[in-house]
Amino acid sequence: MIELTVASYNIHKAVGTDRRSEPARILAVLTEIAADVVMLQEADKRFGVRATVLPFAMIAAHTGYRPVRIGLHSHGLGWHGNAVLVSDRVTITAALPLALPSLEPRGAVLVETRVEGHGLRIGGMHLDLSGLRRRHQARAVMAQIAARSDPMPTVLMGDLNEWRRYSGCLIDFGRTYEIVPTEPSFPAGRPLARLDRIMAGPGIEVIDFGTHFTPLSRIASDHLPVWAKLRLQSDHLPER
Q1: Virtual CA dihedral for 206, 118, 148, 108, nearest 10 degrees?
Q2: How far apart are CA 47 and CA 2, in angstroms?
Q3: Domain range spanning residue 213?
Q4: Which end of the chain has fewer CB atoms within 10 angstroms, the N or the C?
Q5: Helix, coil or strand: residue 16
Q6: CB 145 within 8 A of CB 154
Q7: pLDDT bucket at 240, cuts 50 / 70 / 90
Q8: Total domain count for the chain?
Q9: 127 secondary structure, DSSP code
């Protein structure tokens, strides 16, 4: 069996709760977590060339991660602010944006990977503020994943903007995915809401999980990162 750690983090364009923009703090928090795969939200600036708020050279110099290029903008890190960082354990075999029904700039991304010879699909998203639209977006994400030709274990992560404990889009995702019961992640200084979620599909065992609450994570962004340690069950791992 293969074990790996995944994490999701809304980095708020690297602006902390002290209103200072310090990308180095975000990278330091990611180093604290030491996940194999990180899904980021709000990783690019919203206007202009939509440049990344985490400079590529800084990622290379201060972390063991490499970015997965998905977006259409050469200066950006991701797609509508959704970005993926992976460790050297992870080989990317496909990376694509997912279309979301939305009236505001929202997006989702999907990567297909090989970890020690086995397949794992990972989706990241930042869903709408509207509860009804979130449900439409959840169904759109799952439909696009179901349409992929190669079945493999799948984990979904991101800022779902779902304030209720188990309602709305969580009902839709919960029909297929296990909702990992991480603690509240927003606001970072005094977390009350479980906006950031990790959801594990069939063939994935969740063996540990948490919300990363440290002195640095409390100020680096207005959200805290959430993480989960996963075990891929060998009988569900398709070999190529």
Answers
A1: 50
A2: 40
A3: 2-236
A4: C
A5: coil
A6: yes
A7: very low
A8: 1
A9: -
Q: What are the pLDDT digits (tens) for 101-125?
A: 877 778 899 999 999 988 999 999 9
> Quick check: pTM over 0.85?
yes
pLDDT in tens, 71-98: 666 677 889 899 999 999 999 999 999 9
- 10 sits in the region (left: phi over 0; alpha: psi -120 to 50; else beta) called beta
Cα distances (Å, whole numbers) of residue 22 to 70, 174, 216, 221: 24, 36, 12, 10
User: Which residue is it, tokens 């274990």?
Assistant: 153
- Which residues, 6 or more positions from 41, have their beta carbon under 8 angstroms from its beta carbon? 8, 9, 10, 11, 81, 82, 124, 125, 126, 158, 159
Here the CATH number for the domain that contains residue 126 is: 3.60.10.10
Beta bridge partners of 198: 157
- Rounded CA separation 95/98 (Å): 10
Query: Kind of pairing, strands 66-68 and 204-211?
Result: unpaired
